[in-house]
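Example record

One chain of 322 residues, shown exactly as stored in the release files.
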Amino acid sequence: MNAPPASTDTVFRHRHLLGIQGLSPAEITLLLDRSETYVDQNRQANKKKSLLKGRTIINIFFESSTRTRTSFELAGKRLGADVINMSVSSSAIKKGETLLDTAITLNAMHPDVLVVRHPESGAVKLLAEKVNGSVINAGDGRHEHPTQALLDAVTIRRRKGHLQGLLVAICGDVLHSRVARSNIYLLQTMGARVRVVGPPTLLPDPVARLGVEVFHDMEQGLKGCDIVMMLRLQTERMQGSFVPSIREYFHFFGLTYEKLAAAKDDALIMHPGPMNRGVEIDSEVADDFGRSVIQEQVEMGVAVRMACLDILTRNMATTEAE
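Predicted structure tokens for this chain:
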């Protein structure tokens, strides 16, 4: 179900998109509604527009992410922008250049939008303070990943028709997940109830301060839920033993049909990807096309990132005109 258009009175009053925290319901709705228009465009034979003709977008990823980087690249090109992907592994950053030096260098190129992913929380905000263009956070440390939360919200809203009043369980490695944080902020702002489900070692301390319900048992945590959002087990961020073994983790916290039975019969299954099949989710459940919306999430990602580029560059054009 498509949502109604956002009010023309709604204004997105931010030069950057660094996180969901701090956005108003009206601003989130504007982003979601604009994304809807690009879903339709992306399903047409001619997917390109010239809205961002003459604009330059630089994707700079200090961490690898094929899915996010590719969707931002597609989004920029479909809007007519010049898109540059910077390879951090072969850049001066690997030769000892500081983040501030990088910001100064990038700013000298006069990009209109920087899309940045960085392993350290707060690094993207620091870059945003040193450049003249707009900055979009494509994920920073354990902090936030705002466009992932937006694409998840669009996916849910198109299937359920609304976000208000839904019961959403976010399950697994919440501790290391910027996706979880952005989703918690967005869902609560839009009136949904949020549960987190996972072993105590993989939940932030104290997680309850985020205003969520906390469960350490999957079946109890999924009881009556409308949405089951699984998270990737981020072993690359783990120093020490967070789970006894992968096999035991899947036994207790991997999503199977047996555990899913506790949720509502029409509960949607989500995963931000990439999936570890047999670790956080059973393959049969992941491929259940009646309930899994994992592929839809990927499709919505391009539309959401087009909407973000559109809105931020419109703000830029207004500022330039003034």
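Notes: The chain has eleven helices and nine strands.
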